[in-house]
Design goal:
alpha/beta, single chain, 36% helix, globular, Nucleotidyltransferase, domain 5, five-stranded mixed sheet
Amino acid sequence: METEDYPRTLREFEERFGTEEACRDYLFRLRWPDGFVCPRCGAQRGWGGTRGRIICGTCRYQASVTAGTIFADTHKPLWLWFRAMWYVTSQKTGGSAIGLQRVLGLGSYPTAWTWLHKLRRAMVRPGRDRLCGEIEVDETFVGGTEEAVHGRETETKALVVIAVEKRGRHGFGRARMCRIPDASGEVLLSFIERSIEPGSVVCTDGWKGYNGVQGRGYQHKGTVLRGRGRDAALESLPRVHRIAGLIKRWLQGTHQGRVAPAHLDYYLDEYTFRFNRRTSASRGKLFYRLVQQAGQIQPVPYRRIVGGVPARPQPQPVGVGGVN
């Protein structure tokens, strides 16, 4: 398969992925671009078996192109999953569970909701690289309006930290964001180390939680904003505040603000996936990336998704270059 082979239009998508076999073949080539590798013994030879299985030529293990991916043990055909991924990636603001249910004719809302959450877990590329250059970092609260609370106090909102690369005078690079339990130095510095390449310039406000940034191998530009008002904050960290406003409007618009704190990280992952690919000439490229990454993510059972699992594990900070 040539590099980044993907459909550019809905018509091309329908022509290419009209059968289960075509979808399996595409996923196979994205999972094993250099040829089949046995998941059990690592051998690089095999042949086709019944029911779409691949038989290892060394240990005779019967592998499946969907085993070990988010599609594992699904009772729905792969071509329906492909249409779900096209629906999700072809819309600029994404789609809701009820929208996916209606478009695909899924039997229940919980099925559509679960599918979207599985796809969101595939929107973080394993081994993605860290941000670099000059990066703005700040926190924001996500949630409804609260009364009688001050500063970083909150009763119902979720605290989210955002990092975004500066590009030129007003431009944006890539972004990272995640929910955090508090704005302590330990938490903020841990996020910075996971998300930003050492040696980069980290721009923050004067919050004491950022005092140790320079000691972690970064250059630090801190701006004290106390008493200077909202306009000063917007002026000193404009990119972070712009993204904070966009993510809040996206959650309120596409998802009507009904995002449980336990699942917020995965919605942030989806927004990051879209934001970092906002300049793609074709929405089909987002589809290609999502299928590719879905083949690298381990299965996520429904009970784990709804069972109040901890926040998603942080990806390793080093690896092959990428945009997510």
